[in-house]
Description:
44% of the residues lie in helices and 19% in strands. The protein is of the alpha+beta class. The strands form two sheets. The chain has a four-stranded antiparallel beta sheet. A hairpin with a 6-residue loop joins strand 1 and strand 2. It starts with 8 loop residues before the first strand and ends with a helix. Residues 113, 115-116, 126-128, 156, 159-161, 167 line the site of zinc ion.
Amino acid sequence: MSAPAVEISVDPGTGVWSTDGLPMLYVPRHFLMGLLRTTYEALGASLAEQRLYAAGYDAAFRWCGMEAAHLGLAGMDVFHFYMKRLSQRGWGLFDGAGIDPETGTGVVTLRHSAFVADAGVGAGGKRCGFCAGWAPGALMWVGHTQGRAWNLTGYESRCAAEGHAACELVVTQTGGTAGNMAATSMAK
Ligand SMILES: [Zn+2]
């Protein structure tokens, strides 16, 4: 075991934690997973996935804008820094090397997913839909800042919980308007 690779600051007056200038919450994994299970049960799998995907997509888009400004990064460097920070914060090990910087599409590989760890390896099913919107949301921010007409969406094509060596999160072009709508709303 080793110490966290992210720097955590704590405001002595308020107790608020922050990393890279962003307020953070440090919660037990079982708490978050229980919250997600409750959400799935309340909304049904289809609606829950749709809403959680959108929330993750928007949060990634916002994260990239705030961190680019805070750290002075631009373009695909922001995306890869996002993948690095996710990996350093315990979600699993994200590798965005399979994304084409010219199109924003490709495959993000996820090893040691927190969602698979919670479900148990061999549990079956695709377990990482909650994070399927993160890469396309971040890449839409990249495309937005570069003036590219990307319209990206994402899904988990294979999951380690099904017995694969790693999870694969696909980012692809969509003919729909969801991506553009999110990018437009978040750019305001
Ligand atoms: Zn998975």
